[in-house]
Automatic annotation (TrEMBL):
The keyword Nucleotidyltransferase does not apply. It is a single-pass membrane protein. This is Membrane fusion protein, multidrug efflux system. It is found in: Membrane. Residues 56-250 form the Multidrug resistance protein MdtA-like barrel-sandwich hybrid domain. One of its GO terms (cellular component) is membrane. The lineage of its organism: Bacteria, Pseudomonadati, Bacteroidota, Sphingobacteriia, Sphingobacteriales. InterPro entries: Beta-barrel_RND_2 (IPR058792), MdtA-like_BSH (IPR058625), MFP (IPR050739). Residues 86-120, 173-207 form a coiled coil. Its main location: membrane.
Length: 355
């Protein structure tokens, strides 16, 4: 029995030794591989996939009567996403059109008034000529009777009658001139009214264009090819202009990775350097990329409350500098990556040394 226990202990010891040996070998391989990676690459796991995620914003307020998309649905540019009740806006269009028609009718009335007033002015002008002829003739008669009166060939009463007629004719002449001047002034007034009315018509037409735009805004369409994100609205909901209704991920722009490298790691990085990265979601899939920009400041400098070390209580913390990397991949590979995915980024040190 004792011999059996000794054999068993030997087997356990042997197995344990093999396991320990294999573990040590595995750790050694891992250590060598890790050290090699640290020697060959500047790496960081503080990185995420990015692409443009834009809000779908309403430019008109009202009740939603139809929602034409679901979350995560792919859409094409011009696809209808939401429809807002447009009856109030169409009524405003009708009212503005009616106001334009009224103003245009008033403009026609003013044109007719100008024509009528021009005829009145023409009549007054003719009256001026007739009155001037009467004044001229009556003045000659008055001068003749004045000579006769001085020669005592005409009575004073005859002279007074002729003078009275001359005064009446002068008054008629002045009245005709005033009537002509009033007609001309009225024409000027009507022309000024036409100018004001034309300006009002132009304003109403601009307002009509605005009202028609509001009608168009009640149908919200996709601005580009993309994929719908979170949806926050339902039929019957009252919304205001400027309210965020959904989110859409733009398929028409490139994807990129923002890798937040330590400030001690970026000395040899340059725009155009090639990199590789691995997404946590696809650990067996390697992606390629190209550095397209390095941030002009550290990430903390863009924060809402940037650190202020001028108080004297300075604590040195290694800062992170965002590095923007364009994803160089085929369409199939790009479709695998989603906004916000965590990735591990590796920038070869060899090209940095050569650079």
């Amino acid at each position: 029995m004792k011999k059996k226990h000794i054999v068993t202990d030997r087997i356990i010891t042997k197995i344990t030794g093999w396991i320990a040996g294999l573990t040590i070998i595995a750790l050694a391989i891992w250590a060598v591989f890790t050290l090699w990676e640290y020697r060959e690459y500047e790496q960081t796991n503080d990185a995420q996939v990015q692409e443009y995620v834009n809000p779908v914003i309403s430019r008109a307020g009202g009740f939603i009567v139809a929602v034409k998309f679901e979350e995560n649905q792919p859409v094409k540019k011009g696809d209808t996403l939401l429809i807002i009740d447009n009856r109030e806006y169409t009524l405003q269009v009708a009212q503005t059109r009616a106001a334009i028609q009224k103003a245009e009718a008033q403009l026609e009335v003013l044109k007719s008034n100008i024509h009528t007033t021009q005829k009145t002015a023409g009549s007054a002008k003719a009256q001026i000529k007739a009155s001037a002829a009467k004044v001229w003739k009556q003045r000659l008669d008055f001068e003749r009777y004045l000579r006769l009166y001085k020669e005592e060939s005409a009575t004073k009463q005859q002279l007074e009658n002729v003078q009275a007629t001359l005064d009446v004719n002068n008054s008629d002449f002045q009245s005709a001139e005033e009537n002509y001047g009033a007609a001309e002034s009225k024409i000027d007034d009507i022309i000024a009214e036409k100018t004001v009315l034309r300006a009002e018509i132009a304003r109403l037409k601009a307002l009509l264009d605005r009202n028609m735009l509001d009608v168009e805004y009640t149908v919200i369409r996709a601005s580009y090819d993309g994929r719908m994100g979170r949806r926050t609205v339902e039929v019957g909901q009252m919304i205001n202009a400027g309210e965020v209704l959904a989110y859409i991920v733009d398929n028409e722009t490139d994807k990129w990775v923002i890798a937040n490298y330590k400030e001690t790691q970026i000395a040899g990085m340059h725009i155009g350097d090639t990199v590789k990265f691995v997404a946590d979601a696809f650990p067996d899939q390697e992606f390629k990329g190209t550095i397209i920009s390095l941030s002009p400041a550290t990430g903390s400098s863009f924060s809402l409350l940037p650190p202020d070390n001028s108080t004297g209580n300075y604590v040195k913390i290694v800062q992170r500098v965002p590095v923007r990397i364009r994803v160089d991949a085929e369409k199939k590979q790009l479709a695998m990556l989603r906004v916000g995915m965590n990735v591990n980024v590796y920038v070869p040190k060899k090209q940095q040394r050569h650079g």
